[in-house]
Amino acid sequence: MSNKERKISLTKRVILGMLIGIATGFLIRTFLSDIAFVSDYIVHGFFDVGGKIFIASLKMLVVPLIFVSLVCGTSSLKDISTLGRLGGKTVAFYLVTTAIAITLAIVMGNIFAPGVGVDLTAATTFASQEAPSLGSVIINMFPTNPINSMAEGNTLQIIVFAILFGIAISASGKAGERIASVFSDLNEVIMKLVVMLMNLAPYGVFFLMAKLFTTIGLDAIANLLSYFLVLSGTLLLHGFVTYGILFKVFTGLNPLIFLKKMETAITFAFSTASSNATIPVTLETATKHLGVKNKIAAFTVPLGATINMDGTAIMQGVATVFIAQAFNIDLTMGDYAMVIMTATLASIGTAGVPGVGLIMLAMVLNQVGLPVEGIAMIIGVDRLLDMIRTAVNITGDCVVTCIVAKSEGELDLNVFNDPNAGSTDEELHLHHLK
Ligand code: ASP
């Protein structure tokens, strides 16, 4: 690599990859969409393969990373009561931020009324699902077979097993110390794998965006413009204002520094539309760039990717109001309270993958007796919104991660205030392999 290339930071390269990908997609759809070769071999061939391999390699790291980093984090806690306090605080913040998000969405939906006068022609049908009971959500967190949980990628079950395993390590004296040092080395190696992958991200992100923007249906946006604008406006409002205030009030630190450091993770979340696939990058951002100690981030980040989806909750709030308005159904205060509760609970235990928000929306609509077919109306514009809300989802995870870390005295301010923190870690040195 020449010196000149080296000067462009990874974040900039990833953002550049995304922008060039979006531009390429638009150029192809405008000028080359009729050429079969371009569509078959470039868009559905080259771009598709590149993008899918990129997503697969991100997902490949998620399970080993969650398990190993969390075992490391838990086994290094000095006493077990820390864990209870940490868990309580984190879950409380996650639930409260989700409830704020959905309330904001309902208020915005009522002020701007995007669904009033909308033409109700549903293009497709949508199968509904029942909301899981709180009891079954809690029971489901406990694995009967941890290997099976890992094979299925069930984040909550992996978290529970890793915590118990970590506690046992710290209680096992000399044997525990030996195992803990193996896990600590393993953690280094897996983080190195994350870095290797992040170095390929500019290309991966390019492939994903180029394919998506060549094929995505954008006509639907014109028909649903008011829904699209109210929803994306609320997402941005929450992302900048609510988080900015929460961050400032609870950490006393500058939210702008925080947002700047989130750029790479936000770009990943936006391009993949999956908080789960973004976990490796979120964790790296929280520890190396924001200065949160691994023992906190290893717990809060995977947990957040699973139970904290503020962006998704906002979509559900706006969509519920939109559908009610479009079908001319009045919602009572009680209905809104029910929406807030169901959406907050439904988000627990639902993995952060593309499009899952719509499945959860079906549960919310069912709960207040709104027609689930309403989802068919908004499905056409959902992909782009999914990308924006996933970026909000992981930003929320990191806000809470920093708040909890600061309150525990586990946020390294030298790292937080250093604009270049973590960037040297992102450089790969593979000379010894030559
Ligand atoms: N794609 C979102 C995420 O992974 C979930 C959703 O809203 O569909 O966080």
Write the layout of secondary structure elements.
Elements: H1 3-7, H2 10-32, H3 36-75, H4 80-112, H5 134-139, H6 146-152, H7 155-170, H8 173-215, H9 219-223, H10 225-251, H11 255-261, H12 263-272, H13 275-289, H14 294-307, H15 310-326, H16 333-346, H17 356-367, H18 374-378, H19 382-407, H20 413-417
The site of aspartic acid (ASP) has 16 residues, from α13, α17 and α19.
Percent in helix? over 70%
For the record, give the distance between the C-alpha atoms at the N and C termini, rounded to a whole number: 15 Å
| Name of the CATH architecture | Orthogonal Bundle
Which fold name corresponds to the CATH topology? Proton glutamate symport protein
Number of helices: 20
What do these coordinates show?
- This protein is mainly α.
- It has one domain (8-421): Sodium:dicarboxylate symporter (Proton glutamate symport protein, Orthogonal Bundle), CATH 1.10.3860.10.
- Helix content is 76%, strand content 0%.
- The protein contains 20 helices and no strands.
- It has helices spanning 3-7, 10-32, 36-75, 80-112, 134-139, 146-152, 155-170, 173-215, 219-223, 225-251, 255-261, 263-272, 275-289, 294-307, 310-326, 333-346, 356-367, 374-378, 382-407, 413-417.
- α13 packs parallel to α19.
- The longest helix is centred in the middle third of the chain and has 43 residues, at 173-215.
- The radius of gyration is 22 Å and the shape is globular.
- It starts with a helix and ends in a 17-residue tail after the last helix.
- The model has no long low-confidence stretch (mean pLDDT 87).
- Aspartic acid is lined by residues 273-276, 309, 312, 352-357, 386, 389-390, 393.
- The site of aspartic acid has 16 residues, from α13, α17 and α19.
